[in-house]
User: What shape does this take?
Amino acid sequence: MTYEATSQKRLALAIIDFLSNSLKDGSVSSEDAESIEIAKSCIADTFHVDPSDQAALKDAIGDQSLLSIYGVYEKLKGKSSTAPMPGANGSKGSASTPKPSGPTPTNPEAESFKSQGNAAMQQKDYPKAIDLYTKAINLSPTNPIYLSNRAAAYSASHKHAEACADAELAVSADPKYTKAWSRLGLARFVLGDAKGSMEAYQKGIDYEGNGGSEAMKKGYKTAKEKVQEEEKESAEGSSERDATSTTRGAGGAGAGAGGMPDLSGLASMLGGGGGGGGGGMPDLGGLMNNPMFASMAQNLMSNPEALQGLMNNPRLREMVQGMGGGGGGGGGMPDISAMMSDPSLRE
Assistant: This one.
């Protein structure tokens, strides 16, 4: 029997299995059961296959289904949808993560292209390696080794989005091929998806068994540390925003709410009557326009300890003591202009 005839028989068995599972998982209603059975019988008679031969069925599709195999094909063509797809056992899968289709039969020509691609990789001729792996993939579209190797070549060429796409196809084709999980983890990490990278490495560890290889565990650890770092930065950023909001609220609440008084409003209310040189209240309107005073006020608002230091300044204490009679050149409040120009108050 020719290879083509054998493939046709396997495909016929795969179609019969698909029809059977469509009844089991509810894809078609029970009202169509009779039509499905007639179709299965016609296919079996036409291609001379026995649907009850479990060994032949396993040889045809392995542990997969025609639908999951087609899901990989759709991903290769960029036509996968987000709608769920039923698996071979009736469970619901996803087109974005189709169940593996199993390895395709070895194609000698494809293997030759793969070997040439490996040689190009050793020579660090990545564009040539990509071209050769692509030729191998064209002959065996669902071969996880070819897809994974091209992902490695893309990564080496800093084409990480393409590497990620190939690695995803490779793990869809055969999740037991752990190199593909490692390459998917690397591509996702470089693309900034640390969480997705960690998940890929974890899958690789699970499929490797025995706790995973050192390389896989190292990749997982690196991705996990990055995830924790991002979570910490996010939490700190949130805390800083909350603190800033609280501070602004306190500053705008007025003296009655425990914040700094609204000096500009106070200046308008008092009108600056008398001026410092005349012994009355200082000109608060002019004072608020003084850059040095504005800087001092901002510093006092953000640093309560500075206020304590200012109150311990001996020159300031002398001025306060003189407010009752001799300060300010005319009694009453001191000369604010003189205060602001006094070097001892700027320490």
